[in-house]
Amino acid sequence: MYFNDNFNSLTENYLFAEIAERIKKYTTENPEKKVLKMGIGDVTLPLVPAVTEAMHKAEDEMSQASTFRGYGPYEGYSFLREAIKNYYGTFGVKLNADEIFVSDGAKSDLGNVTEIFSQNNTVLIPDPVYPVYVDSNIIAGRKIIYTAATEENGFLPLPDKKIKADVIYICSPNNPTGAVYSQENLKEWVDYANASGAVILYDAAYERFISQTEASRSIFQIEGARTCAIEFCSFSKTAGFTGTRCGYTVIPNELERGGIRANSLWYRRQSVKFNGVPYVVQRGAEAVFSKDGKEQIQQNINYYRGNAEILANCLYKLGIWYTGGKNSPYIWLKCPEGMKSWQFFDKLLNEAQVAGTPGAGFGKNGEGYFRLTAFGSRETTTEAAKRIEKFLK
Length: 393
Ligand code: MLT
Known about the structure:
Elements: H1 15-29, E1 36-37, H2 49-62, H3 78-90, E2 100-103, H4 106-112, E3 122-127, H5 132-139, E4 143-148, E5 167-171, H6 183-196, E6 199-203, E7 229-234, H7 236-239, E8 247-250, E9 256-257, E10 260-261, H8 262-273, H9 279-287, H10 291-318, E11 322-324, E12 330-334, H11 341-352, E13 354-355, E14 357-358, E15 369-373, H12 378-392
Parallel strand pairs: 1-13, 3-4, 3-5, 5-6, 6-7
Antiparallel strand pairs: 2-8, 7-8, 9-10, 11-12, 12-15, 14-15
Helix pairs in contact: 2-9, 3-9, 4-5, 10-12
The structure holds D-malate (MLT).
D-malate (MLT) is lined by residues 40-42, 107, 130, 175.
């Protein structure tokens, strides 16, 4: 055997690659039809002025011998790590800059982090959830067990003491359902992990969309999390960096198992396999935390919230069950007339030329559900809502 045969256990395509293929096939066969893409959560508003100004300035520095920079630190420049540290301070989380690792995005880190864990670990993953967690662990050949996120538990499963897991993924605000853990519920996971020795991998990529005060922005707001959690965050959804690429991972110095610190392992892993994020991009990311940057990205988030409201109103009018959109940029709806997720996907694409994301692509419990993104332009979102209304009326 020459290749990693764990790949045989994956679905043929990554979820969003499969959706792109189906749209491509449809548009090739129907070139006169305009498909509205409401599938992948890709932002549409450009980078805000505070960010692009900082990037231009950094670019000028790169053109002068005296200010030019070559390889940067593996873990990110200290100016950005300090800015992130200070941001956490605004909601009461005290970090050390050496606990923050800048990366090219949360997706890469959520997948790559599997390398610092033993092959023999059992991984607990909520279902439905962002498919990267499952696919990365299938590739690594790890045992995966699932915890059901259902309408009954508000898509927020809580720990079950009878289940033994070594690594636990939590995504809050959740992709795809938009559900968000309260600090009280998150404390149950932290206590469970500390009692059992498990490590929580906490995906906070949608943290800026939280509007509920009792919800947790960071797992490190929870007492005890520093000994059991790693947090992943991203500038993609917050500040439009999906194409620019920048994110960060927080690994507290106290997180150790068997006398080995996760922080040291991750630094070692990154220094072997990663040469850092471009200086210009890191300067842009730093500007996200400036006064102007904060105000400008808030306006963008409000714009996307407005889109979510348009979609929610449309479903409400149609009497279709939905959730999400309040603390996240995704609307999670129940497919009408008991349709299966991919069946509804094909029907909506073929008959209304709207492409969303089938819930089944996020796990077996996502079957019968469907996700719409609020990251489109206002024009696309309004048109999509109109088409959905006409199609389902
Ligand atoms: C999504 O649509 O779920 C995300 O945009 C995918 C990602 O962040 O990689």
